[in-house]
Amino acid sequence: MLAKKKLYNVAVAGATGAVGRKMLEILAERDFPVADLKVLASAKSAGQTLTFKGNPVTVEELSENSFAGVDIALFSAGASVSRQFAPFAVKSGCIVIDNSSAFRMEPGIPLVVPEVNPEAIGSDPGIIANPNCSTIQMVVVLKPIHDKFKIKRVVVSTYQSVSGSGQKAIEELRTQTKNLLDGKPSKPDVYPHQIAFNCLPHIDVFLDNGYTKEEMKMVDETRKILGDASIQVSPTTVRVPVFYSHSESVNVETEEPISAVDVKKILSGQPGIRVVDNPETNEYPLAIDGTGRDEVFVGRIRDDISCKNAINFWVVSDNLRKGAALNAVQIAEWLIQKA
Ligand code: NAP
Ligand code: 12T
Question: Which domain does 120 fall in, by range?
C-alpha cells in the first residue's frame, strides 16, 4: 500500500494527450498533494512545455527508468504503451492507475469506479484499471438500481463524442465540419468515414460475434464492476459529431418490480449523480451541459411501456472527466486517504 506522506510524487504518462492534459488540469483544480510532477509522452514531445498550476513543466520521454521515486503513476498513452511500461512502474514501487484497456479484464486487477466499488482496490494494489468511459457513466447509475431491484438485462445505445478517440479526432471533426460548410472536400483520417454531419455505428474494432470491442468492453466491464456475471448487457456504440461528453440511452430490466418514480427518488440522493428530469420545462441531460462538470447526469427516467419490471433513462457525462481523468484522480484520492 501507499506510504502516508504530506505530498506525493506523481507521474502522468501520455500527458500531452486529450486525457493526459485533463489529468493535469484536474490534479491542479482538486489541489491533489503533489510534490514532484513528471509529465511523460513519446520522444516526439520531449522538451515541450505543459502547464501545471500556472508553472511550466517540461515533457520527458517515457522510458523504463521514468518511475524512480514516483508514488503514483497515471497512464493514458494507449494500451500497448501501458502493457510495455506499467510493469516497470510497478517494479519501481509505484501504484499505477491505468486508463487504457490493457489490464481491465485481468483477474486480480481491480477495475474501479470510486462511487461504485472502491473496496475492489484492496490493500496492496500494483495496477488499478480505470474502466472505459461509456461503462463508467452507465455503472454509476446502474449500481443503486442493481442494489435495490437486481438487474437482469441492460440494452444500451451510446452517442459518443469524438474527444473519446483523442486529440487528433477532435481536430478531424473541427476541420471536416469547417471544410464541408465551406464547400471544400474533406477526407476522413481517424475515422473510416466522414464524422461531420454523420453517425458511425462503429467504435474500436469489430469482433467475430458482430459486436465491436467497445461494445464488448461495456458488457465485460459492467459485470466485473458490479460483481455479477449474470447481468445481460447488449450495447450498440455510436460515434456522433459532438466534441465532448458521451450520451447513452439505457433500458434496464430487473428481477424485482421497479418504477420510474422509485428510481428517480433513489438516484436523487446518490453521490456523483445529478437527476435532470423535468420534461414539462424541456429539461433533460445534454452533452453541452455535462461538459466541464464532474457529475453523471440522468434524466428521461420513465417506465418501459413494453416490458414488466423495466425502465428507460438517458445518461450524460463528460468523457474526459468522469469517463477518464477525473475517475483516475478520484482513485488516487482514495489511495492517499487510505494511506
Ligand atoms: P491522445 O490525445 O491521442 O493522446 C495520446 C497520448 O499518449 C499522448 O500524450 C501521446 O504522446 C502518448 N503516447 C502515444 N504513444 C506513446 C509512446 N510510445 N510513448 C509514450 N507516450 C505515448 O489520446 P487520449 O484520448 O488522451 O487517450 C489516451 C489513452 O487513454 C487511450 O489510448 C485510451 O487507452 C485511454 N482512454 C481511456 C478512456 C477511458 O474510457 N477511460 C477514454 C479515453 C482514452 P505524444 O503527444 O508524444 O504522441
Ligand atoms: N476506442 O479506453 O474511441 O478503451 O472513444 C476509450 C475510448 C477506447 C478505451 C474511443 C476507445 C477507449 C475509445
Answer: 8-131+324-338
Looking at the fold, whether 275 and 145 belong to one and the same domain comes out as yes
Atom 20 of ligand 1, residue of closest alpha carbon: 42
Residue 314: band (very low, low, confident or very high) from pLDDT cuts 50, 70, 90? very high
Residue 51, domain CATH: 3.40.50.720
Rounded to the nearest 10 degrees, the angle between the axes of helix 213-226 and helix 133-149 is 40
Place of cell 474494432: 205
Q: Say which amino acid occupies 225.
A: I
Give which of 172, 213, 177 is closest to 190, Cα–Cα. 172
Residues 15 and 38 in one domain: yes
Q: For residue 157, what is the domain's CATH number?
A: 3.30.360.10
| Per-residue pLDDT at 283 | 98
Residue nearest (by alpha carbon) to ligand 1 atom 13 = 77
Could you say which ligand is closest to the alpha carbon of residue 318? 1
**Tens digits of per-residue pLDDT, 169-202?**
999 999 999 999 999 999 999 999 999 999 999 9
Atom of ligand 2 nearest to the CA of 104: 4
Give the distance (Å) from ligand 2 centre to CA of residue 98: 13
Contacts 24+ apart (CB under 8 A), 78-87: 78/14, 81/13, 81/14, 82/13, 85/13, 86/127
Ligand 2 centroid–CA 324 distance in Å is 10
- Calculate mean pLDDT across residues 310-317: 99
pLDDT-derived band at 1, boundaries 50, 70, 90: confident
Q: Please tell me the total count of domains within the chain.
A: 2
- Residue 208 in domain: yes
- Atom of ligand 1 at shortest distance to CA of 102? 34
pLDDT single digits (tens) 204-234: 999 999 999 999 999 999 999 999 999 999 9
> Do 104 and 54 belong together in one domain?
yes
Q: Ligand 2 mean position to 132 CA, how many Å?
A: 7
Verify that 111 and 55 share a domain, yes or no.
Answer: yes
Q: Whose CA is nearest to atom 5 of ligand 2?
A: 164
